[in-house]
């Protein structure tokens, strides 16, 4: 096995001085905001590391430069630095980081579609990874290998490798489980490309089970979307609708507008399939509104096209045109060409229906040109057939036949029997009377294919056209034979339509049942609220009855002089007890206040801070916006050392008063420890929190505390960054504060996930 000994034990140069660590950290932080400066800084530091023969620092910098050049879209330099990083780590016997750098190297090859080099590198890397025997790293290498086959459209081979990954992802670690879920999704997507519908649904369900066990709502919701689509392709419309509605419910609870829009669009398509057009329009329109809000042009186009399809189904062509035109009018660079071409194609069909043949041809030719450019054979076949239909409507049979033949040629290239059947029947129908013998040959081919895939409607069409053609040729007995086949098949189709209607009605009923159940839940909630209000009223009435009863008792007592004297004596005793109680209560309140406050600054203490945050986090899924600030007085030790602890206390008190005086009524300021404060900002966005922190920073900077100027550094974070506990949220703000101090102090820094990589620097 390769040695995993840490690099610091191998080279005397590994404990770089603090400035080198700081520069490395700065270069890493600049990666997301100023990649050019990050590269220049890393190169200078790399030169120093190489001069000092600091192999560990050089390895880290090569890795950082690999990331930076990847971000800067320079694959060649990125590959060079990842390779150098891997070699340096190998020199240090640091197998884990050597493998990680090599994984980044092969990922670049994958992104750059250099599949031959990738295959060779994987064959070198995989044995090393297997020797190191880290299941997660082995899985990553195998996934990249599978991804390379997937990208080359070798889906069966990709599936073999994705399946081999599964045995390495058995650990219940969250990161490994997420990778397991992702692998199941890739298996589903690969089977989807192969049109293995059952397997597609199976693996999406496996992914959903993983994300459900992790409690990851966003991944659950998005996988439910894709699972609903997979079930729709299997014609399991009731199951698909269930999954789709579950996705919508989850998306409404989390901040994922794009995911919600996709779920609504998916549900709308399912409702269209079960002929609930009103529900379909309702959901797709809501998706359209969400896409408009987040300015997602591709989503807007897809939703608009779907609404156009519904209105086309309803034969409300004016409405359909409006929505297709929305897609057509969007800036071309913002919309997928395929989506735009679909709108153009459907507009051509509408114009053909309304006999506006000139406009129909213009739209169809534009769609056709796009599909040709993209080499989308199935769409070329369909659009060529539409163009042929337009020529036929114009009476230009020669041009119509040319495009029908082209449609058939591309249909054969797709390998889809259905596309071939449609092209064969359209071409044959035009040839009847021109070359009836060829027409019959084509129709019999169409009939054979329709029988193979059990497409009864196209079988019926073929029977009808052959009957007409045989009669035209004078073959009456043959014509009668096909007429009998036509009649028998018509009866079968009618029976199946009745069954389909029943299935659709069941789907309708299921949809209404779900709506009713949802409405019942809402009604139960209303009843619960009414019951609660009723109980509160009963308690209030009971209290009033008690007061009346007491008053009545007092009245009876006052009726007797003897009882009056006794009452007076009792009242005296009660008064003494009451005074004692008030004094005790006041003292307890003072003690509670003191117990909740820091005695020096009068801010809340650390215990109260956590009590408040723990209480807030009890309702974590319902928290929409919530931020905290960590505040640290810059160079406070120097204040104590120069002026003494008494003056230091004065500065602490002054800063605390300033912070308390300049936050909002619902905000809380707590002394976290030493010269550090924590401010809770409920119902506050990260942008608002940054503005509040900046305003406080400026006020501190301008203030004087016993003639001493000081400044403060601020770390800001938000609940939107997925902290699950108060401690996690505070740690995020603390890392941001540490970053503010590292970058020169007296500034406000918002937490970033990249800060997690630098926790170790804090202990150096």
SSE layout:
Layout: H1 18-30, H2 35-51, H3 55-71, H4 75-91, H5 95-111, H6 115-132, H7 135-151, H8 155-165, H9 174-193, H10 197-214, H11 217-233, H12 237-253, H13 257-273, H14 277-293, H15 297-313, H16 317-329, H17 337-353, H18 357-374, H19 377-393, H20 397-414, H21 417-431, H22 436-452, H23 456-473, H24 476-558, H25 561-596, H26 606-617, E1 626-633, H27 636-643, H28 645-661, E2 668-673, E3 676-682, H29 686-702, E4 712-718, H30 726-742, E5 748-750
Parallel strand pairs: 4-5
Antiparallel strand pairs: 1-3, 1-4, 2-3
Helix pairs in contact: 1-2, 2-3, 3-4, 4-5, 5-6, 5-7, 6-7, 7-8, 8-9, 9-10, 10-11, 11-12, 11-13, 12-13, 13-14, 13-15, 14-15, 15-16, 15-17, 16-17, 17-18, 17-19, 18-19, 19-20, 19-21, 20-21, 21-22, 21-23, 22-23, 23-24, 27-28
Keywords: Membrane, TPR repeat, Transmembrane, Transmembrane helix
Region (Disordered): 1-20
Catalytic activity: 2 GTP = 3',3'-c-di-GMP + 2 diphosphate
Describe the structure.
- It holds the Pfam family GGDEF.
- It catalyses: 2 GTP = 3',3'-c-di-GMP + 2 diphosphate.
- Residues 624-753 form the GGDEF domain.
- Keywords: Membrane, TPR repeat, Transmembrane, Transmembrane helix.
- This protein is mostly helical.
- Among the domains are: 1-120, Tetratricopeptide repeat domain (Serine Threonine Protein Phosphatase 5, Tetratricopeptide repeat, Alpha Horseshoe); 560-596; 606-763, 2-Layer Sandwich (Alpha-Beta Plaits).
- It is built from 30 helices and 5 strands.
- Strands 2-3-1-4-5 form a 5-stranded mixed sheet, with helices on both faces.
- A hairpin with a 2-residue loop joins strand 2 (668-673) and strand 3 (676-682).
- Helix 5 (95-111) runs antiparallel to helix 6, helix 15 (297-313) packs antiparallel against helix 16 (317-329) and helix 20 (397-414) packs antiparallel against helix 21.
